[in-house]
């Protein structure tokens, strides 16, 4: 028997290994050609806090967060209340827990099927170093029809650097769990995917950056962006590049600018608070026309906010955080796989346009791991234009019809200049003259405004008279909402923006032709995208805002409901 | 090296007229830098001057090399990023006492400990000149010439050499704007030193601290060779009068990044993407 999707939550204390359990389960599932998403929900406490692996096995690759769970396996319930809003149970949910567990009231109220298994006792009986998470892995694997041998092999790889006894314990527990007979039958989604990849959005972004030629990274740790940098550290070593752990984000962005000035494609990654610290120097990159890519993995804000959970609330600062008139690029990957393309495209655009590109990912797509078809790549990575060898003074900031001038780097013969955040003339000499300020402001604005960004500014589908407009990680829940609406006989147009600045007003207007109602969907409190669009465009449509703050992921049903309200259906 | 002809100090000047007040100590630092470049027959195309913001940070545009005039306090970060990415270049960072020890203080201590092979010239006049005369981290406690701190800053000034030593800087020297020949020699040595070389320059501000003309009578050259022992250097830097000029401390230690890093593994990009295939 098969189903479209199956959702499994594995919960326990931080450090109990529920994330490892979820990862191995999804990897083994992927080996059989299955698709799925693993979302990691955790609190700020690294050990002893709450942690949940939220697994969604699906037929199609449209990865939204589950709200209702078919299976909840609890290693313990101590901090389950922190997940109550995210992990909903119903009367057909299977709960697997210890025989002696007192269930939380909310769980009892849902009236689920309860299977009591002595996880700790069985793990201890299997091996002296036996752990419950590996026993749970065997148990769940067997419910999904995964070969225990595959789980054992994958766990062996994961524990490759641990003592031999750990690997033996894992194998013993997985096999013991797989042999445990449970009075439970699960319907699983169909398998059969080919050439699949297994990666997180943050890894995908790192890969996109390295494939696009990034060879210098400056890093300052911050949740949920550290894993982009950690993954790149290993990759850069093999590529002959360098990663510097900076003393703070102020140093990180400036080291990035220094390397880029040296002609080496350079990148940094951060999250909201770090982006706030970097903004002064991102303005320096804009003014000195130094290409840098700043990858920002959004989390709940303001201030420290909700550091481990997702929100799309850094749009305002990414668009408007720089002082002065500082035109730059703002992009957002649409999903986990798209992190490869969008990051590569951002690197390429930053170089071609000699400016700063801010990429807005978020905790949901950044730290979730998914099984995806081979990601699309940015095929055409264009470097900054190098100066031709010509006689006379080199004009680094020469006024050209495109606004783009050539970019020499130190070491280039007779092309010496001083890059400057001070306003300057064409040569780069500091100048406070009105004419120089006007012409250089025009230059920096025109090069973005006149550039042909092609078709990748967004993704569109559908043709109805109501449109859903979103950016970045809202794309999947919006697409899901549109699918639900199709089932209700409503054809909704979906527009997911990948390029937020400069906004492609003409293309967007064309895409909205014939549309009467527009709903701007985003995961923040104030409707940042809604207000930005209203300021940039004269809409022919009635424009509505659907803005929901994090950390609970956007709910496709609620979005669809809003469409029905707006359209009066 | 791309320059074939032996150049003179003046050939290393860009011709852009400095904004500095007549009598400013920074003129002499500028001259000393170009003298050192001429003495080392350094290639203009392979040299970069990096700075932050302030009077002294204007210097890169005046040198006929590559340059980067960044934002306040971050020159050292730009310089280190550049040098790590482009180890073939000669990189000099420079700026004032406010830029380097106040807003950029964190970058200073970490640059000392990271030991990237660059030279840092801090032009210390114990005052924020460009914003018209406020107290800096090296201003005396009782200096009451600023409207911002009418009773003096009331806090103890930094001892930059002691701070550099404690943070791990392997090469520490002090120069005086009134002795440009010695300064030029020290700058040349600093450039040639393998590691982070910190040159603290007492560079007078004639406009806001005219009393600094008295420095001429106070400075004294170090007669002894540079210290190699950190314990002795610590004693010296904590107890000296701050006007001893010359090479004060020098030790060899491993620079960052380690030279072993940087080799390219064949087919590495393809390997990285292959690691994600199921």
Give a verbal description of the structure.
The complex is a heterodimer of chains A (569) and B (278). Chain A has 569 residues and is an alpha/beta fold. Chain A has four domains: 5-179, 3-Layer(aba) Sandwich (Pyruvate-ferredoxin Oxidoreductase, domain 3), CATH 3.40.920.10; 198-373, Thiamin diphosphate (ThDP)-binding fold, Pyr/PP domains (Rossmann fold, 3-Layer(aba) Sandwich); 385-451, no CATH class; 458-567, Rossmann fold, CATH 3.40.50.920. In chain A, 36% of the residues lie in helices and 20% in strands. Chain A has helices at 18-31, 105-110, 119-126, 132-144, 148-158, 164-179, 201-211, 226-238, 249-261, 272-287, 315-320, 338-353, 363-367, 434-449, 475-487, 505-511, 528-536, 556-567; strands at 5-13, 35-42, 50-58, 71-74, 94-97, 113-116, 196-200, 216-219, 242-245, 266-270, 292-298, 329-331, 356-362, 369-373, 418-420, 458-461, 466-471, 492-497, 499-501, 517-522, 542-547. In chain A, helix 17 (528-536) links the parallel strand 20 (517-522) and strand 21. The longest helix of chain B is centred in the N-terminal third of the chain and has 14 residues, at 26-39. In chain B, helix 1 crosses helix 6 (180-192), helix 3 crosses helix 4 (105-114) and helix 5 (160-167) runs antiparallel to helix 8. Chain B starts with 25 loop residues before the first helix and ends with a helix. Chain B has helices at 26-39, 75-85, 97-103, 105-114, 160-167, 180-192, 215-218, 230-239, 268-274, and strands at residues 47-51, 66-69, 90-96, 119-124, 127-128, 134-135, 171-176, 197-202, 220-221, 244-250. Chain B has one domain (9-274): 3-Layer(aba) Sandwich (Rossmann fold), CATH 3.40.50. Chain B has 278 residues and is of the alpha/beta class.
């Amino acid at each position: 028997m098969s189903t479209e999707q199956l959702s499994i939550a594995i919960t326990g204390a931080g450090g109990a290994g529920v994330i490892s359990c979820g990862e191995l389960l999804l990897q083994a599932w992927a080996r059989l050609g299955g698709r799925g998403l693993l979302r990691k929900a955790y609190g700020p406490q690294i050990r002893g806090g709450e942690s949940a692996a939220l697994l969604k096995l699906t037929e199609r690759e449209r990865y939204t967060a589950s709200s209702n769970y078919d299976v909840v396996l609890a290693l313990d319930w101590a901090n389950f209340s922190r997940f109550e809003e995210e992990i909903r149970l119903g009367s057909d949910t299977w709960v697997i827990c210890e025989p002696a567990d007192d269930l939380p009231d909310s769980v009892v109220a849902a009236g689920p099927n309860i299977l009591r298994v002595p996880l700790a006792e069985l793990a201890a009986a299997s091996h002296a170093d036996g752990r419950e998470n590996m026993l749970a892995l065997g148990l769940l694997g067997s419910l999904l029809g995964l070969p225990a041998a595959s789980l054992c092999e994958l766990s062996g790889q994961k524990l490759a650097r641990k003592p031999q006894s750990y690997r033996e314990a894992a194998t013993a527990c997985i096999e013991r769990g797989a042999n445990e007979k449970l009075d439970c039958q699960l319907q699983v989604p169909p398998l059969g995917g080919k050439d699949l990849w297994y990666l997180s959005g943050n890894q995908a972004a790192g890969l996109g950056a390295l494939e696009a030629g990034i060879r210098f990274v400056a890093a300052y740790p911050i949740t949920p962006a550290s894993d982009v940098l950690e993954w790149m550290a290993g990759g850069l070593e093999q590529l002959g590049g360098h990663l510097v752990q900076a003393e703070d984000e102020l140093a990180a962005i400036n080291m990035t600018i220094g390397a880029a000035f040296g002609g080496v494609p350079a990148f940094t990654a951060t999250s909201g608070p770090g982006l706030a610290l970097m903004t002064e120097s991102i303005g320096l990159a804009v003014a000195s026309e130094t290409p840098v890519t700043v990858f920002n993995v959004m989390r709940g804000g303001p201030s420290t906010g909700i550091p481990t959970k997702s929100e799309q609330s850094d749009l305002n600062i990414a668009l408007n955080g720089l002082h002065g008139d500082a035109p730059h690029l703002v992009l957002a990957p649409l999903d986990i796989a798209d992190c490869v393309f969008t990051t590569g495209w951002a690197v390429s655009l930053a170089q071609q346009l000699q400016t700063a590109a801010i990429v807005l990912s978020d905790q949901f797509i950044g730290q979730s791991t998914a099984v995806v078809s081979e990601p699309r790549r940015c095929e055409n990575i264009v470097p900054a234009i190098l100066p031709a060898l010509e006689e006379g003074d080199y004009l680094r900031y020469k006024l050209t019809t495109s606004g783009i001038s050539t970019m020499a780097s130190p070491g280039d013969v007779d092309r010496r200049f001083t890059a400057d955040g001070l306003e300057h003339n064409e040569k780069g000499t500091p100048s406070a003259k009105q004419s120089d300020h006007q012409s250089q402001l025009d230059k920096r604005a025109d090069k973005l405004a006149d550039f042909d960004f092609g078709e990748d500014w967004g993704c569109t589908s559908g043709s109805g008279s109501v449109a859903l407009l979103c950016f970045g990680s809202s794309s999947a829940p919006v697409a899901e909402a549109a699918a639900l609406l199709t089932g209700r006989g409503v054809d909704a147009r979906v527009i997911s923006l990948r390029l937020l600045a400069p906004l492609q007003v003409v293309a967007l207007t064309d895409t909205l032709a014939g549309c009467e109602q527009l709903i701007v969907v985003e995961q923040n409190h104030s409707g940042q995208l809604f207000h930005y669009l209203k300021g940039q465009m004269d809409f022919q449509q009635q424009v509505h805002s659907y803005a929901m703050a994090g950390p609970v992921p956007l709910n496709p049903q609620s979005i669809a409901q809003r469409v029905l309200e707006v359209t009066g259906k | 090296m791309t320059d074939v002809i032996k150049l003179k100090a003046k050939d290393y000047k860009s011709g852009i007229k400095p904004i500095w007040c007549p009598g400013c100590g920074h003129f002499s630092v500028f001259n000393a830098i170009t003298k050192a470049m001429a003495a080392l027959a350094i290639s203009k195309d392979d040299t970069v001057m990096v700075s932050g913001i302030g009077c002294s940070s204007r210097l890169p545009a005046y040198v006929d090399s590559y340059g980067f005039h960044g934002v306040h306090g971050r020159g050292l970060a730009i310089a280190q990023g550049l040098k790590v990415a482009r180890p073939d270049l000669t990189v000099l960072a420079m700026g004032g006492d406010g830029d380097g020890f106040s807003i950029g203080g964190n970058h200073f201590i970490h640059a000392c400990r990271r030991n990237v092979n660059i030279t840092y010239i801090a032009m210390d006049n114990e005052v924020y000149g460009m914003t018209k005369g406020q107290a800096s981290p090296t201003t005396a406690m009782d200096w009451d010439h600023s409207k911002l701190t009418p009773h003096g800053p009331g806090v103890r000034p930094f001892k930059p050499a002691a701070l550099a030593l404690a943070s791990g800087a392997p090469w520490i020297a002090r120069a005086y704007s009134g002795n440009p020949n010695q300064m030029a020699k020290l700058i040349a040595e600093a450039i040639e030193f393998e590691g982070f070389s910190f040159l603290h320059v007492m560079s007078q501000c004639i406009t806001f601290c005219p009393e600094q003309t008295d420095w001429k009578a106070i400075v004294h050259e170090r007669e002894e060779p540079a210290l190699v022992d950190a314990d002795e250097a610590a004693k010296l830097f904590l107890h000296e009068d701050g006007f001893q000029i010359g090479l004060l401390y020098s030790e060899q230690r491993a620079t960052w990044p380690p030279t072993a890093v940087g080799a390219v593994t064949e087919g590495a990009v393809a390997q990285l993407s292959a690691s994600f295939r199921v």
